[in-house]
Amino acid sequence: MKDLKEKLFRTQKNVWLENKKEEIFKFAKNYIDFLNVCKTERETVNYVKEYFSNNAKDELIFINRNKNVALVRIGKENGARLIASHIDSPRIDLKQNPIFEDSNIAMFHTHYYGGIKKYQWLNIPLALHGVIIKSDLKTLEFNIGENEDDPVFVIPDLLPHLSKKVVDEKPVKEAFDADKLNLIVGSIPFSKEEKDQIKLNILKILNETYGIYEEDFISAEITLTPAFKAKDVGFDKSLIAGYGQDDRICAYTSLKAFFDSKKAAQTQIVLMVDKEEIGSEGNTSAQSSFLFEVVIEILKAKKIEPTFENIVSFFKHSECLSADVNGAVNPMYKEVHEKDNASYINNGVVLTKFTGHGGKYMANDANAEFVGKIRKIFNDNNVVWQTGELGKVDEGGGGTIAKYIANHNIETIDCGPALISMHSPFEISSKADLFETYKAYKAFFSY
Amino acid sequence: MFLNRKINFTKLIENISNSLDLMAFGENPSHHAIRVGFISIIIANTLNLTRTEKIDLYFILSGS
């Protein structure tokens, strides 16, 4: 009976029992360093650019508007093996007219970006990251709050003594008004005059330090990210908590896998896109024509005329791992998952056949043939993997860029690690799953 | 992984509204609201959305 069970049942492995701990920890240390310097899509593109210049031999790099990037290693055969991640994360942005003064405090208006739980962003140290295009079209890039000596910024919560009616008795969805997510930026008045003296003092400081004026905020992209550093979690240091792991954990592992893989018969591509968290809209998103541009350049480099027919053929012969995270089972909220189809921490990289929500709406549903191929690649290369569906069928749902890649007639499946507390300012991943994701991507590039 | 939001329905409904099949309701821009209303009722009932979601859905649509 035992033999039959062993023969017929699928056994889920635990990554820690399949790999050397030292190797996993070494890989994770570099990843933590990466998380601490890449908190926005622009910073990630800069990191990739630098990594490319230090490691590239025959590879090519394509950058689109400093917000998305593709790395390419050209192969002889038609089509490509593509690993596509996104490098934007849920956050809070400044409005275009941000600064105002109220009750002796200068504040910035904000507008949140992506699916956040608003209460998680109150009274935590925040850093400002951004780019300002000044009136003379000069670019100012900055971050304030990441260095030890920098000030940080805070969105103030309401004291519990007075929050009973306006917060505590309301459903969470209604308790936190987005227009109250305002940021404290200062409190010293410039002079004794009556109005806007604190605002004036802040603008004076900004003008003296950065040479900017109030109107410059209109041509700016300024983002609030958690100011704290990514850290090891637990007595055994087996986990990592940090901001932006959705989806920079996949960006990092795909970058490492790309440069640690040898040239293959097919072209290898790492694609990192922006705007996934707000539905992949816009010219830096997965729906932009950037991928077409990259493919056209690949065909040109291969001395193939980039006709519509050849581009379509290239896509048809391509395969993609849509590198994005899944939601790991949080032991305190097991009820939102269906245990046999949920993903778990330390069980390896997750193959998500489809995302979407109840009824698979708006999802890419990977073809069984392609799932079978990926399963074989992972098994042949001793990759510890699991399957995962995001929660119970009608529980809620999410999506990735998979459907936009698949729309090009590219075989596509979601593949990435599972996170606990996804979309929070301090998301939790497993070092073991991080390492296994790297192994999976490397196997995909190398088969 | 992005969080699914109801706004996806808006886009879906917009696309359906602008399809040739629905032009029987009228082709002028002023008929767009009628087409959208018709489609959203069908979708809301098919997906068995709750009343709150229906109100949200219509609210979003009225601004489209």
Verbal overview:
- The complex is a heterodimer of chains A (447) and B (64).
- By secondary structure, chain A is of the alpha+beta class.
- Chain A folds into two domains: 2-89 and 243-446, Zn peptidases (Aminopeptidase); 91-226, Aminopeptidase i, Domain 2 (Roll), CATH 2.30.250.
- Chain A contains twelve helices and 21 strands.
- Chain A has helices at 2-8, 21-37, 41-55, 164-168, 172-175, 197-210, 245-260, 290-301, 308-316, 368-380, 402-406, 431-446; strands at residues 60-64, 68-73, 77-86, 91-102, 105-113, 126-133, 139-144, 183-186, 220-226, 231-233, 239-242, 266-273, 319-322, 326-327, 349-352, 356-357, 385-387, 397-399, 411-416, 418-419, 427-430.
- In chain A, helix 2 packs across helix 12 and helix 7 (245-260) crosses helix 12.
- Chain A is globular and about 80 Å long.
- The mean pLDDT of chain A is 95.
- In chain B, helix 2 packs antiparallel against helix 3 (51-62).
- Chain B has a domain at 1-12 and 46-64.
- Chain B has three helices and one strand, in the order E-H-H-H.
- Chain A binds chain B through residues 114-115, 246-247, 276-280, 324-327, 355-359, 361-362, 390, 396-400, 422-423, and chain B through 1-5, 7-8, 47.
- Strand 18 (397-399) of chain A pairs antiparallel with strand 1 of chain B, so a sheet runs across the interface.
